[in-house]
Amino acid sequence: MFLNREISAMLNVAIVGASGYTGLELIRLLDRHPGVVISCVTSEQSAGKRISDIFPTLRGRCDLVLEPLNPSAIAARADLIFTALPHQAAMKVVPDFLAAGKKVVDLSADYRLHDPAVYGAWYEPHLNPELLPEAVFGLPELRRETIRKARLVANPGCYPTSVILGLKPLLENALIDITAIIADSKSGTSGAGRSAKVDSLYCEVNDSFKAYGVGGAHRHTPEIEQELSELAGQPVTITFTPHLVPMDRGILSTIYATPNRPVTTEELVSLYADTYKDEPFVRPLPKGQFPSTAFVRGSNFCDIGITLDSRTNRIVVVSAIDNLVKGASGQAIQNMNLICGFPETSGLEGLAIFP
Amino acid sequence: MFLNREISAMLNVAIVGASGYTGLELIRLLDRHPGVVISCVTSEQSAGKRISDIFPTLRGRCDLVLEPLNPSAIAARADLIFTALPHQAAMKVVPDFLAAGKKVVDLSADYRLHDPAVYGAWYEPHLNPELLPEAVFGLPELRRETIRKARLVANPGCYPTSVILGLKPLLENALIDITAIIADSKSGTSGAGRSAKVDSLYCEVNDSFKAYGVGGAHRHTPEIEQELSELAGQPVTITFTPHLVPMDRGILSTIYATPNRPVTTEELVSLYADTYKDEPFVRPLPKGQFPSTAFVRGSNFCDIGITLDSRTNRIVVVSAIDNLVKGASGQAIQNMNLICGFPETSGLEGLAIFP
Amino acid sequence: MFLNREISAMLNVAIVGASGYTGLELIRLLDRHPGVVISCVTSEQSAGKRISDIFPTLRGRCDLVLEPLNPSAIAARADLIFTALPHQAAMKVVPDFLAAGKKVVDLSADYRLHDPAVYGAWYEPHLNPELLPEAVFGLPELRRETIRKARLVANPGCYPTSVILGLKPLLENALIDITAIIADSKSGTSGAGRSAKVDSLYCEVNDSFKAYGVGGAHRHTPEIEQELSELAGQPVTITFTPHLVPMDRGILSTIYATPNRPVTTEELVSLYADTYKDEPFVRPLPKGQFPSTAFVRGSNFCDIGITLDSRTNRIVVVSAIDNLVKGASGQAIQNMNLICGFPETSGLEGLAIFP
Amino acid sequence: MFLNREISAMLNVAIVGASGYTGLELIRLLDRHPGVVISCVTSEQSAGKRISDIFPTLRGRCDLVLEPLNPSAIAARADLIFTALPHQAAMKVVPDFLAAGKKVVDLSADYRLHDPAVYGAWYEPHLNPELLPEAVFGLPELRRETIRKARLVANPGCYPTSVILGLKPLLENALIDITAIIADSKSGTSGAGRSAKVDSLYCEVNDSFKAYGVGGAHRHTPEIEQELSELAGQPVTITFTPHLVPMDRGILSTIYATPNRPVTTEELVSLYADTYKDEPFVRPLPKGQFPSTAFVRGSNFCDIGITLDSRTNRIVVVSAIDNLVKGASGQAIQNMNLICGFPETSGLEGLAIFP
């Protein structure tokens, strides 16, 4: 706990936008990190309240008062800043933190896309496109060493994390037809955030299942394609359909691909085992086993199963993460660990909670 | 209600296997049917108990005593029999009912496949393959007139209903590449039935999402392919992945297909509207709208949305049904209505219950 | 369905505030009523949209356009008006409907309390206290004949319905100490309505259980006490604690009372069976059986179990209703049936939906 | 993690009955304990399988093979044994472990009741009543020092933990009428365990709420009364009603008591704050705040709110725990920490997971 640590040797971090679910999850995970102190939490809407009044889970353990978002005041008290703001809001403050010499792990979408035109097409015009070349898309399994040296890490979206990790071995080995990839993804409701919307009400979501953003409309699409293209070494487009599951946490992506040469399930399972054998947070599963979101709930793991449907000669990959952990706050801490020289797993060792 | 009806003019039906969820759903729906009396309910496990002790929803409204499965005793008191038994169990009694001159709507998988070899490959050897040529796959939207004349209707599986209705307009108009169809389906937990299994426990299912039968292993696959092939006029195989959703009822199928000529979303929406314009229970949705299982819960509707993902030139169809109604008991009653000359919608007019 | 009815002989009803859950439930139930046509639906927020765009369950079955709340325009086209508005809003329009000679079933709290001072103490000052003496608290099991003659029925709250029906036999027979009644009630989330509030978000409610209004703060308290006092013939106060259950529908009240003379469980069970033997919607349970909200879901039933805890000489009553049906819209239709001379059960015959 | 620890200095513990939910929760929590190694896990049903095949959450982190229950083999490899068996099964092996000189924390009901006659009346005849005087009812907030010296700790039931902690300040200060206590408790479904029963199926529990053991029939009643009596210094009986909530984890008890002298809410809040001010795992809440199970989910906290309902002069206490943590495995580890001289909070520092 905070009080038992030697404060002087600790990294001070700020959480900007702490009153949402990813903000809370950062606090929950950092509370177990031996080298970090949370020095500052902000919230525009709840400034002046204790964070533990917003989230009573924190009572007696993190009773910091939420502050308004004053970049210079925050930069003065933090070595690294997590920005857990909506897109468009993050890019208004990130430059200030960088100018003050701070490291930033941004959980919004604002720095994930390299091409400002693509950002503009899917979101709105970018306010500081000059930062995009420098920002590192923070998926450690793809570019761990680059992240270590980064000043600004763009933390990947939840859907992209599940899809990219699911396809990495196939693409970097050029095993599939890159024009025929389909990702059918399903997310828990915390992905919609903590804002008051009728669509997110309990009675609208419970005992219900639906697709949304059908037909390539979801904003995670360009992010997925950017990274898949880099893995493939050529432009990849995919059909991506997100769905809403009546559960709090978890993303499961069922990914379909067509092999471009004869393969067997055994070969595929072996390829995944080999690719991820040294990864602390990716668990490729044995033949015939497939993941459940329940078994990664609350943890930073990504579980992946793979098979060949030999009747139709189609590869099916199933990957599962906790959208708030490996899909957001856990991965952000993994990135912080890389940037700041902590062991990569610090604060992230917790097992999944089941049931 | 039962007591207000003129009993003499009513159709007597038996429900064989009434202590499961589809059995109960038959009772719930038939209770509102103006032309039917339930004369007999059976259950091996619960014989001797009142059905309302098993399902207290029925208290005071259907207090029949469950009987053991004695085919001749049942045939003596029923004009039509719903067999809501596990596969393999149904085929042991259906011939008796037919021999006694009765009509049968079988909710199991036993009579759905025309080819006994296919049945044997996916299930076990068939005990009465001679009945397969006569059995009618009971999807009214495909063969209403044939069903009217049937003695034995094989009520379609829940997943197949959602997938076949979702693809019918595309296949019968030869609009898609029949080698590239993928159906990613998600089902509520009532599809697993009411037997005591660890995998179906509340704590195993709640706040969890998983795939199963991955790689073409689910037994509904041949049934789907048989009907799609008939619609296409040539053999169709598909990649089919079922998933388990933490909800009671509902199936949503997200279906991917590749057009074999240029099409627009408008054209597709119009095609679906036209195909289903006279169907009482299929609701094609306007452009940009997609279904939710919540909006068909408890009803016999199948809602279908369609779009073209123009970025990848792929058609995405989303169809939703209540697995216990249009996916089982409601469709069984629709078939009964056709067989017995009732209005097709009798007993099935109820709106979905939301929330 | 609407189209099959002889319109001329039908009762025209309006639903004011149709875009909430009780409004939708009125439509769902009235759709099955043989003597009613919905002529008008209103919503301030959604005026101009089709009700079936708000609630896609209604697609093709009730596609009325929502209108703004114009009392005279509504009165011109309806014989009876259901006001499903928040408290304070109802009392602004109900007098207009009455002045136009219409019957009103008000689902808000505005006319439930006889004493304007009590209303003022728990809500705000009443705008038309002169109507309170005339308004009838619409619990048919307490005053069926009075309701038949009413112009203005105040439809009871959901919690009060479950508590009052649970205690009626004990109080009217003076069997319990009226100073020691405790009602511990639990409600599904639809009771919180369809407005966008953080507290009602899926992720705030799911996998969670809490009390609220602890210590006698809930506004249903005076309503419960008013009716219990009338049953007892003397002033009754009770300790009432509501709780929020992670489910859509249902209220279960566990009620504790101290007998004022020796009683047995058998005697109590028999008393309840006798009291409610002619009630179409109250099902007293046999000894040893207790209700579940699942078994009344979607139906107008109130199931009640009772026992004596002989170790502590305390009576425990457990009552269950669907808060949207017997606790709101179903009871409103039951009241409409009484007022308008329909069979009391018309439109309300549907069995509970399970699972 | 296990690998980073100096194994020689570690405490070896065995988990007997590891394939249930409390067994898994012990593993999840002990995985974070710096001084413990799990040397042995047993399961009769799953002997020979890896525990991580039963619970894939453990993949790569705890892959021990489940063993059959051989007491001498277990005693040879463990310093302390957690017995997570059904009642009646625990008492068959606990004497063996004690005879081998081991410490035991028993999570069953077998050693909680001091009086063998009471045990016999609520369960079955006790096989080793001679151990009952020695067994310590392991609620650290009641008898921390006694637990430190114990050889056999009877870990309290989940309901009793929530009720006893909720009433302790009132009873030890003789503030309430001990004949008028009512505890209305609500539990998540994991309390029913992981055995395959129809009543625990997802579809039976979801969107449903019910009472059970109504009228003083639940076996936790004598355990509660034993401890309340000890706190009060005289025999206490209570009315206790458990309920089943559609959620995985959590118990919330709403407790009603009658003050025996005038009190105020402020006085009560202050009393609770004072009583529990040094307790690491009890969080008394400020005036006007009440707990939710969501805010203790996955943590060892017990949150308690209290108020006086001044209208009826009744005290209402609301307490919340996670039934698998403070109500079972967390408390067992807290007891282990006391017995073995670890800091009391070791392994239990994790914050609640929300949402």
Automatic annotation (TrEMBL), chains A, B, C, D:
The name this protein goes by in its record: N-acetyl-gamma-glutamyl-phosphate reductase
Gene3D superfamilies to which the protein is assigned, alphabetical: Dihydrodipicolinate Reductase, domain 2, NAD(P)-binding Rossmann-like Domain
Domain Semialdehyde dehydrogenase NAD-binding as annotated: residue spans: 12-150
InterPro entries membership: AGPR (IPR050085), AGPR_AS (IPR023013), AGPR_dimerisation_dom (IPR058924), AGPR_type-1 (IPR000706), NAD(P)-bd_dom_sf (IPR036291), Semialdehyde_DH_NAD-bd (IPR000534)
Annotated organism of origin: Trichlorobacter lovleyi (strain ATCC BAA-1151 / DSM 17278 / SZ)
Function: Catalyzes the NADPH-dependent reduction of N-acetyl-5-glutamyl phosphate to yield N-acetyl-L-glutamate 5-semialdehyde.
A GO-annotated cellular component: cytoplasm
HAMAP family xrefs: ArgC_type1
GO biological process entries: L-arginine biosynthetic process
Location in or out of the cell: Cytoplasm
Keywords assigned: Amino-acid biosynthesis, Arginine biosynthesis, Cytoplasm, NADP, Oxidoreductase
Main location: cytoplasm
Domain of life of the source: Bacteria
Entry's Gene Ontology molecular function annotations: N-acetyl-gamma-glutamyl-phosphate reductase activity; NAD binding; NADP+ binding
CDD domains: AGPR_1_C, AGPR_1_N
